[in-house]
Design a protein that fits this description.
By secondary structure, the chain is mainly alpha-helical. It is rod-shaped and about 85 Å long. About 5% of the residues are buried. The longest helix has about 50 residues. It has four helices and no strands. It has one domain.
Length: about 160
C-alpha cells in the first residue's frame, strides 16, 4: 500500500474516531435528540405502512387461492355424491380434471400460508419498532417541553 493511501486512510480513520468521540463527549439535549429521531420515526412509519399495504395485497391473493381450493374440494365432493357406487363414467373426465387440479395446487397452500405468516410477523415487528421510536420521541419531546395542548411538536428546531 502506498504511503499516500496509508495517510489518507489514517486521516479518514482519525476523522471517524473524532466524530464518534465528539458525539459521546458532547451530550445532546433532549431537544436535539428529538429532532434527530424524527427522520427515523418517519422512515419507520413509511416502512410499516408499506408493509401493511403489501400484506393486504398478499392476503387478498391468499384468500383467492383458498377460495379456489375450497371450490375444487366442493366440486370433487359433488362428483363423488352423484352415485354411491362412484363417479359416473360420463362425469369421470371432469372429476379427474378437478382432482388433478386440486392435487396440483394443494401443496402450495402450506407454503403460501407460511409466507403470509412470515410477512405478517415482519410487519408486526416494523410496527413495534415504529411504536418504540414514537414512545421515545414523545418522551424526548416532553423532556424538551416541546409538547403543548394545542398540537404536536414542531417540525424544526
Amino acid at each position: 500500500m502506498s504511503r499516500r493511501l496509508k495517510l489518507i486512510l489514517g486521516v479518514g480513520a482519525l476523522a471517524i474516531v473524532m466524530a464518534a468521540l465528539s458525539a459521546i463527549l458532547r451530550p445532546e439535549t433532549p431537544r436535539q435528540q428529538f429532532f434527530e429521531l424524527r427522520p427515523d420515526l418517519s422512515d419507520a412509519r413509511r416502512a410499516a405502512d408499506a408493509c401493511a399495504a403489501a400484506l393486504e395485497v398478499e392476503q387478498a391473493d391468499f384468500d383467492e387461492y383458498v377460495e379456489r381450493v375450497e371450490d375444487l374440494r366442493t366440486r370433487i365432493a359433488e362428483f363423488e355424491a352423484l352415485d354411491e357406487r362412484g363417479v359416473p363414467a360420463r362425469d369421470y373426465p371432469r372429476y379427474l380434471f378437478a382432482v388433478d387440479t386440486f392435487n396440483a395446487i394443494l401443496p402450495g397452500w402450506e407454503a403460501a400460508a407460511d409466507t403470509l405468516r412470515t410477512h405478517r410477523q415482519a410487519c408486526e415487528e416494523l410496527v413495534r419498532v415504529h411504536n418504540a421510536l414514537a414512545d421515545s420521541a414523545r418522551a424526548l419531546a416532553e423532556q424538551a417541553e416541546l409538547l403543548d395542548r394545542q398540537g404536536p411538536p414542531p417540525d424544526r428546531p
